Amino acid sequence: MVLAAAEVSRLERLQLATSRRLAGHLSGEHRSPRAGTSLDFAGHRPYTPGDDLRRVDWAALARLDMPLVRLFDAEEDRDVRVLVDTSASMGYGGKLRQAVRVAGALGVVAMARRDATWLHTTARAAPRRFRGSAGVPALLDALAELTPAGPTDLVDAALDLAARPGPPGISVLVSDLLDEDWEASVRRLAARGGEAIVAHVLGAVDLHPDLDGDLDLVDAETGRSVPVSLSAAGRAVYERRAARWLESVAAACRSAGVEHLVVPAEADLVPLLLGAWRQAGALR
After folding, report:
1. Residue 62, CB half-sphere, CA atoms under 13 Å: how many?
2. Phi-psi region of 208 (alpha: psi -120 to 50; beta: other; left: phi over 0)
3. Which pLDDT tens digit goes with each residue over 155-201?
4. What is the pLDDT of residues 14-41, one digit of tens each?
């Protein structure tokens, strides 16, 4: 089970936050850059022939001797596109399980506000769209079927997402970023416009390996074997380098205008979303 019913119920009370207005397709619950028919007054513009006379501000006409039309904020949906890294490295330390929970949680939050959720994967299957009352169980079922396999190709997957037609909406990459070209994938994600988030899923072993002695480490994605000799001093060097790498990821995301949120694979997800993600402004 990707998410329990109680978790879904708590998540449905949340909303994905945005720093700018994003245009969508259909009637929804978010302010749009376009003027529409909601009850939120947005301002005036001069009357032009053909305008609906019901929108004329007669009080302003009497006061200013100038015909003005009242504008209101449109309320529209938006696309939320979630790219889940399903490469072989995600199969260790519970990372893929946490990644699909993150994707499921964001889908629940989005669809509770009548937003469409698109599921992309690095396996490059055609993205699937979920919306409406049947969208949540269908998305959770699709996520439950994902398995870790193959190499990481975040750049091409992010490029494919960024090139999809439609308004930019919100784009989310859920990955451990264990790819030499991770920085390029972040830039590609940001290139779509709208809002972009990197949910950086890492297991404890990624940052603090519990290994000792002479070992052969095998790359899960390439099968390449590397002999290493680890001691307490060697682990300390690794941990410092891992910390610097994590800082470089955060800096690259800031530079690209992308929100970077670390998701420990072992963390209880819903409290994390209600706490750290809310504090970061990604949810409200």
Report:
1. 3
2. beta
3. 999 999 999 888 889 999 999 999 999 999 999 999 999 999 999 99
4. 888 875 544 444 444 444 444 444 556 6
Q: In the CATH hierarchy, which top-level class contains the domain 5-13+78-280? A: alpha beta
Tokens of 195: 């809002």
pTM strictly above 0.85: no
State how far the Cα of 13 lies from the Cα of 109, in Å rounded to an integer. Answer: 7
Query: What are the extents of the domains in the chain?
Result: 5-13+78-280, 27-76
DSSP strand pairing (116-121 vs 195-202): unpaired
Q: Which of 204, 171, 177 is nearest to 82 (CA)?
A: 171
List Cβ neighbours of 94 (8 Å cut-off, separation of 6 or more).
203, 265, 266
The position carrying tokens 């469409």 is 116
Q: Per DSSP, what are the bridge partners of residue 80?
A: 117, 170
Mean pLDDT, rounded, for 239-244: 97
